[in-house]
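User: I'm putting together notes for a lab meeting next week and I want to include a structural view of one of the chains we've been expressing. I don't have a solved structure, so I'd like a prediction I can at least talk through. The sequence is below, exactly as it appears in our construct file.
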Amino acid sequence: MDDDTELRHTPLEAQHRLAGAKLGPFGGWLMPIEYIGPLKEHDAVRRRVGLFDLTHLGKVEVTGPGALGMLQSVITNDLARVAVGAATYSLVLNEGGGVIEDLIVYRLGDERYFVVPNASNTQRVLQILGEAEADEPLHLIYHQDWCFLAVQGPRSVEVTSELFPEAAGLGFMRCAESQFRRRPVIVTRSGYTGEIGFELFTYQDIAGELWDELSAATGRFDGMACGLAARDVLRLEMGYPLYGQDLFESVTAFEAALSWAVAMDKGDFTGRPALERQREEGLPSMLYGLRMHERRHIPRAHYPVFLEDRVVGEVTSGTFSPWLQTGIALAYLWPGDVVEPGDEVEVDIRGRRGRATVVRPPFVDRSPR
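Assistant: Thanks for the context. Below is the predicted structure for the 369-residue chain, given as C-alpha cells.
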C-alpha cells in the first residue's frame, strides 16, 4: 500500500512531522521509520533512552468469566500461571502448529486480560478470538481509539516514573494501571529492544500531551524519538523474531525455537496435536542465529546458507549490528545436516561467500541490571 490515503494514521503524526520524521507504511499504518537516523537512534536506546510510537500494534481487551478458558484454548502459554499484574509472551497457532501470530497478554484483573497482537494480524486475531468457543460469557473490546507509546533504554525508569511513579516498582513483564490527565493508562515493564523499558497504553485524546511530556523527559537524559528502523535492529540483536519475517504459518512454534512459549502440559489448545507429533518425529528445520566473521559481510533476508557446497538454510532477518560491529542474522537451517551452535557455515551475499558462526541468540547480552 503505497498510497498514504489507504493507510491508517497515528494520532501523533503532527508531532512526528514537526520532529522531521521520515514516515513510511508499516503493517497498514503510516508510521515513523526514522528521525535523525537509525544508528544514532539505536545508540540512544542502548546507552540512554529512546521514545517510540507503536500505535500501529493491536489493543484488545478480553473480560468476563469466560475470558481465561477461551484464551487458554487459543494461545500456547499457560495464562492460569500468570498472576494479576503480570504478563506472558505467547503464540496463536494453526491446526498444523504453524505460527499465525505472536503476542503478549497482560492480566489486569481476575477476569480481565489485555492482548497486544501485531498490526498486520490484529483483525485476524480478533476473528479467532471472536470465533473461539467459551463456556461462560465474555466481552471482546477492540480499542481502536487507544495509542501505544514505548520508553526504552537504561534511563527509561527515570523518564517513565516522572509521570507514572508506579513504574519504578515494576519488575519485568509486570503491569499496573495509572492515570494521565485523569484518563486511564496501562503501564507495563516490557519491550522489544532487550533494554529496561516501559510500554504505555491510553486514549488517543491525550496521546499528544503524553508524547510531548515523555519527549521532554527523554531529552533531559540526552535521549530522542526513535523510529521502526532502529527498533528492528535492536530486536534482531536480541534474536527476537518478527512475524512475517521470521515467523510464518508454514513453520511451527518448535521450529521457530519458541518451545519456551508453549505449555504442552496445560491442556488442549489449537495446534497442540501437531506439535506432539513433531516432537516425536523430529523437526524439519530450526531457527538459529548467525554471526558473521567479517564486518563487510552483511546478511539479508532470503540469502542462502551453505555448509561446504550444500545449501542448508536461508536467512530470514539480517542486518549490521552497531553494538557488535558485525553482521548478524536469523536463519532457518534444514534437516539432514548436523549444524549446531559453534559450527561454521557460509552465507551467500550476492554471489560472494561470507563465513559465519551458528549461535543461539541473543547476540547482545543485555541481562537485567
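A couple of points you could mention at the meeting. The longest helix spans residues 207-219. The radius of gyration is 21 Å.

User: Perfect, that's what I needed.
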